[in-house]
Design a protein that fits this description.
By secondary structure, the protein is an all-alpha fold. It has three helices and no strands.
């Protein structure tokens, strides 16, 4: 399924539509997505900590 979604995201029509809406289509494997999300969580956690935000 991930391969089909990646191919769809890279199709010219879909790619142009997403880019026009400010979305950068990437696609990839489930492992790549998990790694991306893990990095984003660390990045936002660091920003929240630097801003003095506390978990509720």
């Amino acid at each position: 399924m991930a391969q089909a979604v990646t191919r769809g995201l890279q199709a010219d029509g879909m790619r142009q539509t997403l880019l026009a809406k400010g979305v950068e289509p990437v696609g990839g494997t489930p492992e790549q997505f998990a790694n991306f999300m893990s990095g984003e969580m660390r990045r936002y956690a660091a920003a929240a900590s630097a801003a003095g935000l506390q978990r509720e």
